[in-house]
Each structure stands twice: as structure tokens, then as C-alpha cells.
Amino acid sequence: MKKLVKNNFFVLILVLVIVMAVMSGMSDYFLTADYLLNATRFISETSMIGLGMTLVILTGGIDLSVGSMMALSSVCLGLTCQAGIPAGLAAAVSLLVGIAGGALNGYAVCKMNLPALIVTLATMGLFRGIALGISGGSAIPIPKSLYFLGQGSIGPLPVQLVITTTAYIVIAFFIYKSNFGIYLKGIGYNEEVAVFSGIKVTWNKVKAYMLSGFFAAFLGILFTCRVSSAKADYGSNYEMDAITIAVFGGASLAGGKVSFAGSYIAAVIIVLIRLGLTTAAIQTEIQSVIIGLILILAVAFNNFVASKKKIEI
Amino acid sequence: MYKNRKAIKALLVFYVVILGVMIVKAPAFFSFENAIDILLNTSTTAIAALGMLCVLLVGDIDVSVGAVLAACCTMTGILAKAQLPLAAVIMGAVAVGALLGLINGVVVTVLKLDAIVATLGLLSIYRGLLIIITKGSWINGLPENVLKIGQGRWLNIPIPVYITVVVALIMWFILNHTEWGRNFYAVGSNQDSARLSGINVRLTRIAAFVVCGVLVGAAAVIYTTRFGGIQSNTGKGWEMTLISSAVVGGASTIGGEGDVSGVFLGALLVSALGTLLVFFGVDALWEQAVQGLIIFISVASYAVDFKKLKLRLSGGGEKE
After folding, report:
1. For residue B111, with 0-12 CB atoms within 10 Å meaning exposed, 13-18 middle and 19 or more buried, which class applies?
2. N or C: which end of chain A has fewer CB within 10 A?
3. Whether the predicted interface score ipTM is above 0.90
């Protein structure tokens, strides 16, 4: 039992069960298959934005530009489709924009040695501004062929759920089983040591930022396909959601320690709380208070457990 | 200290370039009224950015300032509507700011959380509570005696500008000539050595958060009285403005670096950008992109080594 309490993942599952129990008590619709399947659409969107952030936090950085990148990719998708480019190619262009944006962040952070918080704060304004500028601020319709990505299902499962879960598994596999993960972890723990161990610190860090941009852009596409039009004001404050998810899931902002399963469960918990409270007709303001409290308490608990661990060693 | 000087240098170069371009492109920019207008816009940002500077100096960050501003504005509005004297209104707003700053500081230091995570959580808690308490209503129709602060002029210069100058001078004195101020730098540069030299690190960090809250409270009084009304979503995204002001002005997010003059120049640049772009005839849609680009460039310019650049320029035509 003692060991289980110390395991962050176990605590998250416990919180999830409690949340489910409370929500189903508050609303009769909550524990039905339809409701939960529909909820997975939102869950997968939120968890995808957390995935890129988790990667960046692993290197000890932070990426505030994800929400803006999502809007930029959405607008790019809309505009390229409007220009008559086939849907598949248009989506590829959006993803490339995401990777390029991530590369810009990575370059400024790693090559110019600027703090990640500041660089991504600036690019947050920049990406959102470009999205606003090129779209003219208006909503752009997307072709029907793309609707499948956001509204279709594979068997009984929504498309987003399949894509995001696959993405999580692939990334977790690479991080836990390949050198890339070891490099990132090493960089997060101690960058200087990583340099002296012969790890290509710059390139690996830039890769993490590019992946973050990529997933933000991917989310932009999925989101656009769900709501059927592209717009420049999507994803505002998503960076806060992403940080909340990563940290709630057990990541340390100092770097070197993250949990992908934890991030996924954290996204599930946060979205279920939001949806559940909405279904139970509770004010959004109370939701924001509850989510804030959960974030602080969860992180305080994690730190408490971590400090206990240190003493035992 | 060296890095900070470099940031200020970069910023000054930036100002010269911008002003140079303005002389050619839009001479109308250089009018007394316009200068006053820009200074007025800068006042709230500059005052609060100085508070943010203190938090950054000790190596923390406060992203809840937007919600704190909204809370202080609401307090100002409520007290002013109750026909209380001016001093009481100001005291009330500042007290709310100090209280919320104290909560921030205690949560960060006692629970030992990352400042960004803790204040992020507190941001959503404050905002939620504020809207629950005020029921999302707007406050307007403030009495004349209070509006004087934000809208009045003395010697043809708006009162907020005087307040900003006074606050900046006080902060300069505190940060450079008092033990408390120097402790901020010491704690931010190296917490362990600060503790070993007998500084109460936790108290210093809490003090930084309280100072930030107090200054945001002062900014809130100006903000409320200048516009004469408050919406419930006041200050949304304001934390980004303040952080970029401080950082463009050379404050380091790791702690221990930054000073009042730099942050003041940074706040001036960030809040004057809007006006500048209008004079340039930039389409309103592209405004945010250009603002982001300029902040990005000014931050990136710190990475440029001026000495090397000078050598290269004087060397003449030497390749990279």
C-alpha cells in the first residue's frame, strides 16, 4: 500500500475513479456509453496538446506557443483547401508549418541560448498574429472530405481517439525504448553532463520542440475537422491546459522526469471534470476554481511524496 | 549585471532605429499629445511590470497578475461606489493586491511548488471566485473625486505619469539601496549561498510576491479610474504583457538579473507598439503578428554579441 501511494500513476487512477463516481452521482447521463464515447473526442484533443508539452518539459523547457500554433495550422488548412489544393496535401502543409514553427522555437532556445519561456511567449503572439493576418479574422469552411478526421469513427471509436492513443503509444515507445528518450532525459536532468556525454544536445532539443509544434498542428487539423471550419482564435489558453496536464501527470518542470501514461490520464480527468460539471449544469467559474485547486493539490502531493522518497534514500 | 546592460543597450539601439524610421515615415508621431498618450498607456504596464520584476528577481514568476488586477479593480470600483474617500479606495485596492500576493507567495514557498504551476492554478481560482462573487456584472458610473486620478492632469501632464515616475523612483531606491532590495538579487542569483549568508530566503520570496501584488493594486487604481469602468474579464492575458515588458527590459526569468530602468524601457516599448503600428499604417489584423515579431527580435537580439559584431563591422567585409 505504501508503495502504491508513492506511485503517481496509482494516485491519478484513484482521482479518476473518484471523479467518475462523483460525476455519475451528479448526472444520470454521465456513465452511459454514448456520453463517454463522445467525451473521448474532447479527451483526445486535450491529451494531444499535452503530448507535445510533455516532450518539451522532459528536456527542461516549456512551449507556450502550442495554442497559437494550433490556430495557425487550422488557418493554413483552411486557406490551402480554399486555394484548391487536395485535402491530403493541405493537411501535410499544415503539419509542415507546425514543424517549422517548432524548429523556430527550438533554434531560438538552443542555438541562441534564450530562455524557453520567453521565446515561446514571443512566438505565441507571433503565430497567433500570423494566423489572424492571413485569415483576415474570418472563419474559413473546409471541404467535406476532411470531416471524417474530426467527426467520423473507426468501428465504435472516434477517429481522434485512435489517432491520439496511437501517437501516445508511439512516442512513449520511442522515449522509453530508444536512445532518443535517454538523450532527452539526460538533457533534462543535467544539460552540461549531457554535453560531456557526447549527446547532441542542440539537435535533440530542437527535435523535441519540432514534435511539440507537429502535435499542436495535428491537433489544429483534428479540431478544425470537428467544428468544420478554420478560424484564428482556436486554442487560446490551450498552453495552460497543456502545462496543467503534463504537471498533473507527474512531470517536473525542472526537466528529466515525465510520465506519458500520467499525462494521458490527467487529460482524461480534467476533461471529464469539465464535461461532467457542464452536464450537471454547474457554473464554468466553479469549474475553474475546482481545476485550479486540483492542479495545486496534485502537484503539492507529488512534491510531498518526492520529498519523502529522498529522505528514505 | 553584464547581461542586463546588454539588454538595455539592445533596447536603446532598437529605440533609435524605431524613432529614426518614424522621423522619415511619420513625422506626425512626434507631437506632445502623442507622447503624453503613450506615457499614459505605459503607466499601468510599467508600474505592474516593476512588481513582476521583483518576482522575477527572486527567481519566481507570477502568472496570476491578470486575475489579481481584476480583483483589485473590482475592489476599487466597489469602494469608490460606496463614496469612500480617495485614500480609503487606494488603500483597499492595494490591500487586496497585497493579500493575493501573500497567498501566492505562501503557496509557492510553503507548498514548495514551481511558481509557474502554483500561480497558474491560483489564476483560475481567483478568476472563478471573482466572477462568482461579482456575478459577472460590470462596474461603472464611478464618482468624480476618484476619476481624477486616472483622468486628471497637473501642469498638462496626466497624473498617472507622475505616479509611475514616483513608483519607479521608489522601486529604484528599494532595489539598489536597501537591504531588502539587495536580498532579492541575492536570493535570485543563488538561493543556497543567500541562505548561508543569513538571508531568510522564504520570507524574501514571499515579500517579492507581496510587492508584486501591491504594485498591481496601484496599477489597478489607475486602470479603473482611467477607463471609469471595469469588466469582469479585465486583465485577461495581462501576465504575458508584463512578463514580456520585464524580459524585453533585460530581466532574467532565472532570477537575479534586471533593473528598474530596463523594465521601464521594456514596458514603454511593449505598450507603445500599438500606437507605433497605427502610425505605420499596419492593418489591425496584422498588428499582433508584428508585435510578436518585434518582441521576438528584441529578445533574440540579446543573443547577439555586440563586441564581436563591432569587431566584424570595423574589420570591414569579413565573412562570417
Report:
1. middle
2. C
3. no
B contacts of A113 (beta carbons < 8 Å): 303
Specify if B27 maps to a domain.
Answer: no
More reliable by pLDDT, A47 or A28: A47
Of A112, A121, A286, the CB nearest to B300: A112
pLDDT at position B311, please?
Answer: 62
Cell digits of residue B52: 513582476
| Nine-digit cell string for A237 | 489558453
Domain that holds residue B175: 2-17+32-302
Residues of the domain holding A291: 33-307
Q: Classify residue A10: in a domain, yes or no.
A: no
Contact B113 A300 (CB under 8 A): yes
CB contacts of A293 in chain B (<8 Å) are 121, 125
Q: Within a domain: residue A20?
A: no
Three-state secondary structure call for residue A42: helix
Q: Please check whether residue A260 is in contact with residue A247, taking contact to mean a CB–CB distance below 8 angstroms.
A: no
When divided into structural domains, chain A yields a total of 1
User: Would you state the cell numbers that stand for residue B166, as one nine-digit string?
Assistant: 514616483
Alpha-helical segments (H) within A252-283: 260-279
Please tell me which residue, A274 or B303, carries the higher pLDDT value. A274
Domain count, chain B: 1
| Closest by CA position to B299, among listed A102, A122, A106 | A122
Tell me if chain A has a CB within 8 Å of the CB of B305. Answer: no
Q: What's the CATH code of the domain at A285? A: 1.10.3470
Q: Domain containing B238 — which CATH number?
A: 1.10.3470
Chain A residues lying within 8 Å of B288, measured CB to CB: 125, 128-129, 132-133
Polymer length of chain A:
313
CB pairs A-B closer than 8 Å: 141
Q: Is residue A5 part of a domain?
A: no
| Residue B247 contacts A, CB cutoff 8 Å | yes
pLDDT for residue A158 is more than 50? yes
The answer to whether position B172 is within a domain reads yes
What is the model's pLDDT at position A140? 86
pLDDT at site A100 = 94
- Nearest CB among B127, B129, B253 relative to A117 is that of B253
